[in-house]
Amino acid sequence: MNIAILDDSKEDLRQVKSVISSYYESQNTSADIHLYSSAEAFFTKYIPGFYDLIIMDIYMGSMTGMDAARKLREARDTAALIFISSSDSFAVESYDVQASYYLLKPFDPEKLCRILSTIQFRQSQNSRYIELISDRTPVKIPVRSILYVDTYRNAVQVHTTDAGIIRSYITFQKFEELLEGMKCFLSCYRGCIVNMDHIEESTDEGFVMDNQELVTVRKRGSNAIKKAYLEYLFSSDSDN
After folding, report:
1. E strand or H helix that includes residue 110
2. How are beta strands 214-216 and 206-209 bridged, if at all?
3. Nearest 5 degrees, angle CA 143-CA 2-CA 180?
4. pTM higher than 0.70
5. Cα separation of 79 and 87, whole Å?
6. CA-CA distance, 55 to 7, in Å (whole number)?
7. Strands across the sheet containing 199-202
């Protein structure tokens, strides 16, 4: 795990690092932790895709944590983001940069550990593959590459980030069984499921994915669907 912590408070940097180090030691997982006192200092050494997890304060001088997060997402960086702030003023806005969690200072170390556990679960989940037959050929599809899945003329269509649309003549019910236990998937309407890890924005019409495609949500029950998405993003217990 490559982890960056951004905070202009030396004491907060020390505390967050201590909690994170203890957590990953307990999991027998190697964690390379990098500390930065500002977003500007972070970007002087930033390499897109290097970090698995980035934890940052909101208020850090001229470049805020939200500014830094937007810059990361503009670079298509998919690192998990956790905000730790003295104010909840940006909690709603953090949805726009796909933040995993938003904690208020002084934070609860046990809650941060639960969050780390959830993120670790999601990352291990996203290393999984599903196998389909497409054009009579077995195909392995990484779960993390799946944007959404729908149906067209009796075929299941898997929309992916890197291989376009993969079609397979399997029933939608059978396909859903392949995803059993993977809580990143959410049903938008009958015959359509979306990978919540690729949602960029929730709108009145549905979900805008990070490739800018719109996946619509059925009108009946749309509030419950969007609530499930928000709970997935921000509930530290949703995957435990």
Report:
1. helix 109-125
2. antiparallel
3. 20
4. no
5. 23
6. 9
7. 199-202, 206-209, 214-216
- Report the Cα 87 to chain-centroid distance in Å: 22
- Indicate the helix (H) or strand (E) that contains 158: strand 155-160
Q: What is the pLDDT of residues 68-121, one digit of tens each?
A: 999 999 998 889 999 999 888 888 888 788 888 899 999 999 999 999 998 887
- Rounded CA-CA distance 185/150 in Å is 12
Question: What pairing do the DSSP bridges indicate for beta strands 192-195 and 146-152?
Answer: antiparallel
Angstrom distance (rounded) from CA 158 to CA 179 = 12
- Residue 187 near residue 181, CB atoms below 8 Å: no
Residue type, 131: E
CA distance 124 to 52: 12
Residue-wise pLDDT tens digits, 188-222 = 999 999 999 899 889 999 999 999 999 999 988 89
